[in-house]
Amino acid sequence: MVELTGHSLTVEQLKKILLDREQISISSESMARVRESRLAVERIVAEKKTVYGINTGFGKFSDVIINESDVHDLQLNLIRSHACGIGDPFPEIVSRAMMVLRLNALLKGFSGVRPVLVETLAELINKRVHPVVPQQGSLGASGDLAPLSHLALVLIGEGKVHDEHGQPVDSAAVLAQKGIQPIVLQAKEGLALINGTQTMTAMGVVNYIEAEQLAYDSEWIAALTMEGLEAIIDAFHLAIHEARGYPQQVAVAQRVSEWVKGSGLITRQGEKRVQDAYSIRCIPQVHGASWQALDYVKEKLEIEANAATDNPLIFDEGELVISGGNFHGQPIALAMDFMKIAVAELANISERRIERLVNPQLNDLPPFLSPQPGLQSGAMIMQYAAASLVSENKTLAHPASVDSIPSSANQEDHVSMGTIAARHAGMIIQNVRRVLAIECICAMQAVEFKGIDKMSPKLRAKWEHLRNVVPSITKDRIFSEDIEKMNEELCGGYIIVKKET
After folding, report:
1. Are 148 and 191 contacting, i.e. CB atoms less than 8 angstroms apart?
2. Where is this cross-link: 5-imidazolinone (Ala-Gly) (predicted)?
């Protein structure tokens, strides 16, 4: 069980909650902070102080004072009116991440919600009641208003949740079945639920989990290609990489060297050629740079996972209530745009290695790895498919964070588009995995021609396992099916985020 404290949640803990079905608990200290924060809100209401979001309207309506008798309706109206999500829903794992991240933010004790609200949210998480949240509709400031409103609907017994088959069903029936009592929103609670960056951060965390695995997979797949092309190992000597100084570059060189250790196919400089092409020789530099970006992304995600991102925030037992802008998603927007470029590069260089595997002008293998060149096309169009995905990624990698469209009658005049950046990063990741799947299929075929008995022990074990997934190319067949089988294998049999159609 993972204990949430509001300040110590890590990506590794989120992996356990999201992938390993770990349950969560709430620390006693954080619950005490929640109680203190709620008492502060109740004093504000009792003393009839004017505080944004408690007894005022929202956005451009912030100057509209709300009667005390209408404070409850204010919160309910907020959730219903802001539930404007559009399009296909996020994968269920992203909805679960949203709930965990929103709960962790509330446990910081700056939001003024009642203990019953956080307890109900924890109960929904532990009983795996996950909201159906449409993917489109967030500007990424004033938080992820639309998607988080769909999350909040479930707490009040409205909206949709995923059933055991992943289909949308009315939340009221599922809550009744699970014995969960819907809550009635009180002052500040609706705003506290939806003012935040938990959608872009949730998508970002899931992206990172996938991208991290992809980055590791790209290394052994590249090593397999190196064997198929009888690549030169000298370029991976640690002296070269330590001379530059990037620890991620050094680490990639070390890991790739371990994959090819003991190989009879790997060569030394001067044996077959003096230098390899950049897509082989510069694997540590290019992949290492992507790892640098992923390290940056992970750092920002873990900060945001433990951040207070709603508005206003309550300090000093209610003596200090400040309206600010922590809901602005710019830090995650930039991180997701950085991730897009970094992950797309893994496919860019992979596609160039695919070309070297299939192009007879660049190797001494059969043209397009065909068993009967001419009669059989072999892997020719697999390279086309990889090139298409790489090209699509270049469009998706355009930074979303450079765009901003004013909203709320120009009160919210700069927004992050962070959720769009996170969604596009997810789409790029799906494309990259399929490019790597194609490289893997081609590299497996290449080492067959060169001699599997000469492979390194570690890569030979990989090859033997993967031949149960995708058989040798003995004649042309529907290679799309092979690509998807390999893609699913690289997913570990579990596709976290399905490619959008």
Report:
1. no
2. 141-143
Tokens 């030394």 belong to 268
Task: Tell whether the torsion through CA atoms of 372, 374, 376 and 379 is positive or negative.
Answer: positive
CATH number for domain 204-310+323-404+415-490, candidates 1.20.200.10, 3.40.50.620, 2.40.50.100, 1.10.760.10: 1.20.200.10
Tell me the pLDDT tens digit for each residue of 440-478: 999 999 999 999 999 999 999 999 999 999 999 999 999
Domain-wise residue ranges, the chain: 2-196, 204-310+323-404+415-490
pLDDT in tens, 159-168: 999 998 889 9
Separation of alpha carbons 104 and 26, rounded Å: 9
184 residue type, one letter: V
- How is residue 66 written in tokens? 């709300």
Tokens of 102: 């929103």
CATH number for the segment(s) 2-196: 1.10.275.10
247: Cβ contacts below 8 Å, ≥ 6 apart: none
Q: Provide the angle, in degrees to the nearest 10, between the axes of the packed helices 11-19 and 283-305.
A: 80
Predicted TM-score (pTM) above 0.90: yes
Concatenating the DSSP letter of every residue in 441-483 gives HHHHHHHHHH-GGGS-HHHHHHHHHHTTTS---SS---HHHHH
* Domain 2-196 shares a fold with domain 204-310+323-404+415-490: no
Number of residues written out for the chain: 501
- Give yes or no for a contact between 187 and 71, defined as CB atoms under 8 angstroms apart: yes
CB proximity list for 36: less than 8 A, separation 6 or greater: 109, 317
Beta strand spans in 90-246 (E): 134-136, 160-162, 168-170
pLDDT in tens, 386-441: 999 999 999 999 999 999 888 887 778 889 999 999 999 999 999 999 999 999 99
433/311 Cα distance (integer angstroms)? 39
CA distance 155 to 120: 7
**Positions marked catalytic:** 52
What's the pLDDT tens digit per position in 360-375?
A: 999 999 999 999 999 9
What's at 332, amino acid-wise? I
Tokens, residue 72: 């409850």
According to DSSP, residue 168 is labeled E
